[in-house]
Amino acid sequence: MKKIITALFVILFASSIVAQTVTKTIAVTGAGTLSSLLTTTEKTTVTDLTVTGSIDARDIKCLRDEMTQLSVLDIKNASLVAYSGSDGTLPAAVNYPVNEIPAYSFYDGVTGKSTLTKIYLSDRITSIGDYAFYNCLGLAKISVAATVPPVCQPNTFKGVDQTKCILEVPYGLNEIYPAELYWVNFIHIIEKGIKDVTGLTAGTLSSVLDADEKATTVKLTITGDIDARDVKCMRDDMPMLSLLYMDAATVKEFVGVGGTFGNVSHTYPANEMPAFSFYNGTVGKTSLTNLKMPSSLTSIGQSAFYQCSNLAVNLAIPSAVTSIGIYAFKGCANLINEPLQLPGNLTVIEEGAFELCGNIKGSLQIPNKVTRIKDSGFRNCTSFSGVLIIPSGVSDIGFYTFENCKGFTKISVERGTPPVIQSNTFNGIDKSACVLEVPIGATAAYQAADYWKEFTIVEKGLKVINLTTPGTLSSLLTNDEKLSITNLTITGDLDARDIKCLRDELSQIAVLNISNANIVAYSGTAGTMATNTTYPANEMPQSSFYLGSMNGRLTLTTIVLPKTLTSIGASAFGYCENISTISIPNSVTSIGMYAFSNCRSLTGVLTIPNSIATIGDYAFCNCTNITKVSVESTVPAIIQTNTFQFINKTTCVLDVPVGSAATYLAADYWKEFKSLSVVDGINDIYVNKYAIRVVNKNISVDNVGNIRVSCFDCLGRCVFSAVDSNPKKDFTVPRSGVYVLRIENDRLKLMIK
Fold first, then answer.
1. Which of 276, 282, 492, 620 could form a disulfide with 467 if both were Cys (CB 3.0 to 4.6 A apart)?
2. What does the pLDDT average to over 521-538?
3. Which one-letter DSSP state was computed for residue 671?
4. Average pLDDT, the chain
5. Which of 520, 631, 552, 548 lies closest to 584 in space, CA to CA?
6. Are residues 587 and 504 located together in one domain of the fold?
7. Residues 469 and 618 in one domain
8. What is the pLDDT of residue 238?
9. Are both 452 and 468 inside the same structural domain?
10. Other beta carbons within 10 Å of 63
11. CB–CB of 539/569 below 8 Å?
12. The domain boundary residue, chosen from 591, 617, 647
């Protein structure tokens, strides 16, 4: 029994020796000498071997034949040099090329090296010889570093289970290797240098990553919590780090030594990209090419990405960021933003924040909450183009802030009082060519302001254009003008195509003056209607500013119509709910149905000129703020049942010319107005002089303190007379009919219904 127990102990002890991992790193200074550098014990016990220096086919033979327990072989930092002779992996004298894993490397002609489980190859390897890994049945991972797949032979991997063996390739080459002959059969291909760290505890990244991961990681994704110590690890310990995704991570506060600020105790606030995140005080992290910052950031610290010159990303700054620190992105010359989107919560742009970011293109809009743009903020951002928009809150712009931003063609300042700038704020910008756009009415202030007055100044949204060829308005306006014009005057000839441009392309149009323009005829599909339509001359086209589906051009507040206009088309201004005044020219003879339907902001008096003969159904439907309709023709225009639908005809006064009251009282639909006022044309001035108002049978007269006011019916009977110090007289007549109102020596005829 004792012998049996002893035998079992020996077997178990031997098994534990075999199972034990023995690691060895060796530098071979002379190719072919590896065997002499290893002891007999090492040859039979080492399982994990790392070789650096120069090796050749003789050393590979040693690995194959003498290292009986070899499992993991790392030769990624070794050079395979040429060898010619009979001591290599083949029994005969053979020439072994440089940078080739020799033929029969791990196959001795009888069996493959069954102990070999992992091998890491150099990026200099260009070929792998025939039978190199033949029947290496235990091979579970091959890691290649070459960016061009090494050339293989038919039997290079024969006998290796390529459905299970992992092929690790350089980042970005996971589709390249499978396309090459003899690599194609590997099923499990992973990209080297990709590391996902989930649920990180702040300050522990350095201990979570092993030395190889720190040295080789190209793409790093982190979730969980990080602090300045973790960022320092990324900056200083990960030389290959190129793609960094931290959008699902949260930056925690850290106080102490070991952060990005150097070996001094420092306070790093929560939710701030730490100061000097990827700038070590001397150089920026040039390996960094792509970046996603934590989405919860509220600030970006000083010099956080200073001189990260290869950061070639469309930079997304988190929306909660309120401040961007000094030199935060200075020297990030390859940022590809077009345009640069700054977060809406940003309040301050510190000195040099985007200086020397020479590849940022497009226009630049400073967020509305920014109050100061400090010195050199965008200095030497030479690829900007288009418009620089400075909001009304900016009161101060520092020295050299936009120096050499030569691509700006317009600077739009929304502040009525010119912000304080310096003599060199806009150095290098051609002020004779770059337009300074200021708020309406602010021209004089900017013309008097130091350094602003050097620009060509225009008022924002104001445009005057002479249209010589109908249908060309759209082509004469730039895209920026279409998006910014608020006040437009047009002279010359235009047609339905130009009206369509005004409706559909000028998104901010508020005031339109076409009084000195002529509308010419047009027939086609490019007008205000979607179908092929004939548009008459001198007619405001149907659906001029009506967009359909009960929507009109809501930005429009004022329009002055052409003096030569003869008709207003159907739905021309339908649902333009912010038009507040309209003056219909005396040349207009007809107003189409729904022409001003739902123009709810029309207030006060609507004047219908004596040229109007017809007004379509629903033309002024729902214009409920009209308080008086003043008609100038003694012959009532033809109207329809719903022309004035929803206008209160009890309180809305209808003013008609003298002598026409009976006609209007008898006219269809006009007679529905309950408050009819008849004003003698000769004495019209007195209506305004005495603020006369008639509602039903109630008459009000103002501005008559100590002046006698009398009212007589058509038989000469006095129905009211009074004189006192009260400036206003209110009275009621007994019945409908014609009355004469006498105010001292002034007389007015009134028709009361």
1. 492
2. 97
3. G
4. 91
5. 631
6. yes
7. yes
8. 96
9. no
10. 24
11. yes
12. 647
Confidence of residue 4 (pLDDT cuts 50, 70, 90): very low
Instruction: Provide the domain count of the chain.
Output: 3
**Closest C-alpha to 661, from 741, 739, 742, 747:** 739
pLDDT tens-digit readout, 95-133: 999 999 999 999 999 999 999 999 999 999 999 999 999
- If one counts every other C-beta atom within 10 angstroms of the C-beta of residue 641, the result is 11
Does the residue 357 lie in any domain? Answer: yes
In what order do the strands lie in the sheet containing 539-540?
539-540, 567-568, 590-591, 614-615
Residue 591 tokens read as 């107003």
Q: Of 595, 599, 653, which Cα lies nearest the Cα of 624? A: 599
* Longest distance between any two alpha carbons in the chain, whole Å: 152
Both tokens assigned to 113: 């090296």
pLDDT (tens digit, 9 = 90+) per residue, 164-210? 999 999 988 989 999 999 999 999 999 888 999 999 999 999 999 99
Among candidate residues 647, 675, 705, the one where a domain is terminated: 647
Query: What does the alpha-carbon distance between residue 238 and residue 4 come to, in Å, rounded to a whole number?
Result: 55
pLDDT at 12 over 50: no
CB neighbour burial string for 671-683, b if at least 16 within 10 angstroms, e if fewer: bebbbbbbbbeee
Does 130 share its domain with 176? yes
Cis before residue 339, ω within 30 degrees of 0? yes
- Domain range for 351: 314-458
The Cβ of residue 456 has, within 10 Å, a number of other Cβ atoms equal to 12
Which tokens sit at 680?
């003698």
**Strand 653-657, strand 626-631: pairing:** parallel
Residue 217 domain flag: no
Sheet strand arrangement including 604-608: 604-608, 626-631, 653-657, 675-679
The answer on pLDDT for 659 being more than 80 is no
What is the residue whose two structure tokens read 């323009």?
517
Same domain, 534 and 449: no
Locus of tokens 């469309």: 314
The more confident residue out of 313 and 594 is 594
In a domain, residue 300? The reply is no
pLDDT per position as a tens digit, 297-355: 999 999 999 999 999 888 899 999 999 999 999 999 999 888 999 999 999 899 999 99
Residue 459 pLDDT > 80 = yes
Angle at the Cα of 215 from the Cα atoms of 212 and 221, rounded to 5 degrees: 90
The SS3 call for residue 477 is: coil
Report the chain's terminal Cα–Cα distance, integer Å.
Answer: 135
Q: Are residues 420 and 517 in the same domain?
A: no
Q: Are residues 561 and 502 both part of a single domain?
A: yes
| pTM, full prediction | 0.61
Confidence of residue 679 (pLDDT cuts 50, 70, 90): low
Is the Cα dihedral 329, 332, 335, 339 positive or negative? Answer: positive
CATH number at residue 625: 3.80.10.10
Between the alpha carbon of residue 701 and those of residues 78, 629, 686, 705, the distances in Å are 109, 20, 10, 10
Length of the chain: 753
